[in-house]
Amino acid sequence: MRKLSSIDIYILSISFQVAGGLILLLWSFGRTKEKVIQLYFPGSNIVERDEHNKVCLDKKKLRKKAVDIYMNRFAFICLIIGYGLSLFGDISDYNRWKALCIIEIESIVIILISIIISNVLSIIYFRKDEYIDFDELEGVDTFMTEAEGDSIIDSLD
To answer: For residues 102 and 98, what is the distance between their CA atoms, to the nearest angstrom?
Structure first.
């Protein structure tokens, strides 16, 4: 078995980083609205339905879940851009401490921009509460509506 060269290790390193980025993307991939609704109910929850069998999803919670998805997507984009740019960069003749400081500042700026864009997108796409059919929800329980209770009581008479 041959010994790994520095090029082999570098390529393997980038491959692991790209794989991590793809995992982030695939985890949040799909139609944003559907993913937000899936994340809205992270397990078995009990919801209240209206007389039309609709469930109200609060816009604030929808926005929070949307921000989570958008941030995962931005993480993937940042990873891909960063790895791509690293192929063309070289800091061998540069002060590494100075580079570290610049990296930290640029990273904070990129994160803040990503947070701002994610929040703006979530506000644009989730302006109001969403009403969806209870039958579309999986793993969610409900209370009996008042009309259903009255119907059961009437059937007992």
So the answer is: 6
